[in-house]
Amino acid sequence: MLLPNAWDHASAAALARAGFPAIGTTSLGVAAAAGKADATGSTRQETLRLARGIARLPALITVDVEGGFSDHPGDVVDLARDLAAAGVVGVNLEDGRPDGTLAAVEAQCALIRAVKAAVPALFLNARTDAYWLDAGGAPEAARRVTAYQEAGADGVFVPGVRDETVIAELAASLTVPLNVLYAPGGPTPERLAGLGVRRVSTGSLLFRAAVQQAVDVAQGFLRGATGPGDVLSYADAQDLAAAYERQVPGGAR
């Protein structure tokens, strides 16, 4: 399954209207849109507010909560409860920390168990940043996803892995779904499915592409371009917001 990642209500609503049955959020996109840095644990309120709105869209919504926005397990559990109450069906919980290290395996497993005990119906996708943080690569990633699976994670996410042999070995070693990050120039979603991957996320790619496209269009005008090709109309953009207002009386709070 391809899981596109949204960063605000409009992007999530547009993806839902395009027919995607499940949509995730991107922590980078949410943080950048709020003028904050990603992976620093500073966007709890922005993430929760967005989740409360888009959970009402006609799609399954899973939310990237970084490391839980707190060093205290109780706070992470409270967040999970709030998200589930809002209608969110899943969360992505990572072991990377703001200082560039990985959380201790035992501590991360304890956090996974605490969240699952409190909100058993919430799909917990346990992410390891062993590749992204250059912290042990394939062996460390394999050790961690195995431990997270045993701790009760419903799925595991290994962003940064691109080697097809490693991906196939990871998928074969697990009994829960393996999630990887789509990388332009890397294996296609179809190829990844053939390797045993169950979920392919776009991560921050859509957000970064949208920002770059905005800059490219503006620069094109300076070069004499008449405008981009097929774009969302004003009326269509208004309709995305109007649908949201109909779903949430008085708008988001």
Q: Please tell me the total number of domains.
A: 1
CATH superfamily: Phosphoenolpyruvate-binding domains
**Count of individual beta strands:** 9
Number of helices: 10
* β-strand amount: 5-15%
- Whole-number mean pLDDT: 94
Which secondary-structure class do the elements indicate? alpha/beta
What distance lies between the first and last C-alpha atoms, to the nearest angstrom? 32 Å
Low-confidence stretches: 248-253
Give the name of the CATH architecture. Alpha-Beta Barrel
CATH topology: TIM Barrel
Write the topology of this structure:
Blueprint: E1 2-3, E2 5-6, H1 9-17, E3 22-25, H2 27-33, H3 44-54, E4 60-64, H4 73-86, E5 90-94, H5 105-118, E6 123-127, H6 137-150, E7 155-157, H7 164-173, E8 178-181, H8 189-194, E9 199-201, H9 205-222, H10 234-247
Parallel strand pairs: 1-9, 2-3, 3-4, 4-5, 5-6, 6-7, 7-8, 8-9
